[in-house]
Specification:
Blueprint: H1 20-24, H2 44-51, H3 55-62, H4 65-76, H5 79-82, E1 86-90, H6 96-103, E2 108-113, H7 117-127, E3 134-138, E4 151-156, H8 169-179, E5 180-187, E6 190-198, H9 201-207, H10 220-228, E7 231-233, E8 245-251, E9 262-269, E10 274-287, E11 294-297, E12 309-320, E13 325-334, E14 342-351, E15 356-365
Parallel strand pairs: 1-2, 1-4, 2-3, 4-5
Antiparallel strand pairs: 6-8, 6-10, 7-12, 9-13, 10-11, 10-12, 13-14, 14-15
Helix pairs in contact: 4-6
Length: 366
């Protein structure tokens, strides 16, 4: 098991120039964005696509400077990768990545966007003078016919909460297998999921234990459901009780879609005497093919992003002493009814001086 390490992340000293170029072009960067024109009978996927038709979510993504500036730096500081290349932007949203690529000298960029935002992206491309370089294609990646048989680079911001929520990764892998040349590049090309444990008594009491006694009434049936729903929120550094450990590393250039479902062991060692109320998952991404490896982390010790962290509350309060450890496994799978949802099973145990417990808990990201 590998302890989390922070590779050389991008510098954000120039963050104050804040993506004004990007903002004037409006943009996405966000993974999926997407909603094709739907008929009266919408599927869960259609509702997912529809969510990316709203401007607010794109504004939030654009203003996530950590993410947006990383992509901008990857492209602008590695123009040798993009010069005269054909680029495919998967889940283009308002088209910010496509604009970056065009400005970096790409020969042509095909921006696939399934949501109504594709119409805005077309206007943005024209408004910024790139209509001869960027072609916006409205539709699902799996149903699109590209005007070319192959592309040199696939770029996408596909990551969801808990890295895998919304499952846009499979769409990127589909595009890779169908259109990418043999020596082509996928950006980002690496992603890893990490785990740590925190003390969080106050919030757990407020959000979880609250249901045990609501103005004198037993509503604990809701508590059971709330325990199964991972919380997406920002964790403070001083809450962290244990080391951070990598659960899964994914090479986007080589992995298969099945690799996104896995079971991984973990061993979290306490750094002080404390209580553990929850496990916390976060992810890192990296662009290793750059002249200088670049990436960012969504962990609690890094600058905040819109992904925040994913908190999984434990049924037990673990009393742990420094040097003791919580061991177990985490199983991550796509939900069978809606593959954009994620099912998580955590098995954990602690055999310590003041606490002995072993349990299995189920979580569902919806």
């Amino acid at each position: 098991m590998t302890e989390a390490t922070n590779f050389k992340f991008c510098s954000y000293e120039d963050a104050d120039e804040t993506i004004e170029e990007a903002a004037t072009a409006s943009s996405n960067l966000e993974q999926d964005s997407t909603m094709c024109d739907t008929e009266d009978h919408q599927t869960s996927a259609d509702y997912y696509f529809d969510s990316y038709s709203h401007f607010g979510i794109h504004e939030e993504m654009l203003k996530d400077v950590v993410r947006t500036k990383t992509y901008q730096n990857v492209i602008y500081k590695n123009k040798h990768l993009f010069k005269d290349k054909i680029v495919l932007d998967v889940g283009a949203g308002t088209g910010i990545l496509s604009l970056f690529c065009a400005k970096a000298g790409a020969k042509h960029v095909y921006a696939i966007e399934c949501s109504q935002m594709a119409d805005m992206a077309k206007e943005i491309v024209v408004a910024n003078g790139f209509s001869n370089v960027i072609t916006v294609l409205k539709g699902k990646v799996e149903e699109i016919n590209l005007p070319v048989s192959q592309v040199d680079i696939i770029i996408s911001e596909w990551m969801g909460y808990f890295l895998l929520y919304e499952n846009m990764l499979n769409t990127v892998l589909y595009a890779r297998d169908k259109w990418l040349v043999n020596d082509g590049i996928v950006l980002p090309d690496n992603a890893s999921l990490h785990l740590t444990a925190i003390e969080d008594s106050e919030y757990k009491e407020d959000k979880i234990e609250f249901w045990n006694n609501v103005y004198g009434f037993d509503m604990s049936c809701i508590r059971k459901q709330s325990m199964m729903e991972p919380l997406v929120d920002t964790v403070e550094q001083n809450q962290i009780v244990t080391n951070c450990q990598m659960l899964k590393n994914m090479n986007i250039s080589k992995m298969t879609s099945g690799d996104a479902s896995f079971t991984a062991p973990f061993k979290l060692v306490a750094e002080r005497d404390d209580y553990i109320h929850a496990l916390v998952a976060y992810f890192d991404v990296s662009f290793s093919v750059c002249h200088k490896m670049t990436g960012f982390s969504t962990g609690p010790r890094s600058r905040n992003t819109h992904w925040k962290q994913t908190v999984l509350y434990l049924e037990d309060v673990l009393t742990i002493c420094q040097g003791e450890f919580v061991t177990g496994t985490m199983t991550v799978t796509q939900n069978k009814k809606n593959p954009r949802d994620v099912d998580i099973t955590v098995k954990y145990s602690l055999n310590g001086r003041r606490c002995n417990v072993s349990r299995t808990q189920q979580y569902k990201m919806r």
